[in-house]
Amino acid sequence: MNKVFVEKKYGFNTEEALELFFRFNNTIVISENDYVSMGSDNGHYDSRVVNLVSEIELQEFYGVHEANRYLRSEVLSIQNIITFITGIPFLEYSGYESCSTVIPRSIELKPTKFIFDDNDYTLALEKLIQKIKDDTQLSISLLDRWRKASYLSIESNDANLYHDEAILGYFHIIEMISEMFRDELKAKLTDGIFNQINSYYEENLHYNATQINDKLKKNRNIINELFIDSELSISQKCKFVLTKYELLDDVTSSFIDELIGTRNSIAHGRKSYNKNALWPVSPFFSLSHNSYECLDALSILSARLIDCYFETDIWKEKWEECHSFLLPSRDILNNFLKHPKGFTGVSVDSLFQGNAYNFTWDSFFYYYVQEPRKFNLERICNAIKDMYLSIEYNVENSEQLFNISVVLCDSCDRDVSNFARKIVVFCVDKKLFPWGNKKDIYGYLEYHGLEIPWYKDYLLK
After folding, report:
1. What pTM was computed for the model?
2. Domain spans of the chain, in order of start
């Protein structure tokens, strides 16, 4: 056997502070203070230098370059670890200098360190490495799937090119983690339903223990089919996992339901032709109509679930921030539109600053766009009229009002429509809108088959 040393330098696409020193199996990872200019289809950018130094024994008949093949799984695992902690895809394509030799490479050993953007992730790194040792197959599969989906997501920024594939990749992570708890969920459902049936027989039919056992044994297959196996859907498994990790609430539950619908559209196929298009235009018809709206949140949720699996909190803060921007539950919003006075925690201030239901001015706009019949304009107008008309709009808050105001310009309520038009004119004059330009919202609503006559006339003037 010959001992071979492999050193490869990579350009890691970040300008943030990065300090690395750790060992993973046969490889030592070291960050350098230097920058290297890396090129891509999107231009050149300065990258931090990350050096991987590996040591491996090969059969004598192999050349030194065969070491790269034997080390590939180890190198990819390291790239997965760095990607997950930083949120920046670390790719093999970013390698720019490599050397394989039988000459020993001497490295000064230092304490394990992982510092990124002035945050110390050393403890999290150690937990990741230990968990990988305990369950290499699942741990690396989760991290690699997340790295690949993150890469596809970033590559899609300009044209939504790989949105569908990225969504499936992130969702596979949720499915893999959910499958870990399948047996536990099944046992919980089994205990619950059989205990209830046992109580039913005992309290209502006065069967003794032997009679109850006979009944349960006779009907076990039917009970399993009706109440257990049929309920082990991906939705229930996902929500069970979220409950285990204390991440489930009405908002997250609603988000999961939306994700499953999007995932099914992609995985099972549907008619993808759409006469209209949105910027940035895609080179293909998309199988999902809202991939651009859920992708970022799905990325962070899947990362947070991996976080929980590894017992780290790398993505905890980002998920909490992301959660505050998720859409409210469709059912709860519908109840609000029916009985707005019953939601005492909803006020003008809370619609700007946040509330327990995740109601915002944009959430009303979004649901109107997605389901204009159920969440029609006049229902929304009637529910929010008093709060809306009491707003003192200014340069600090007007951008949040732009979307809902554009559609309210055509409300049948004259007070509301006049007020909405004033806000829209103010926003356009001050360039306070969450779009690239003032015309984009018209194209967005046109894409969804909605007309806004007043704003159209306003643009034509």
Report:
1. 0.90
2. 2-134, 163-322, 337-460
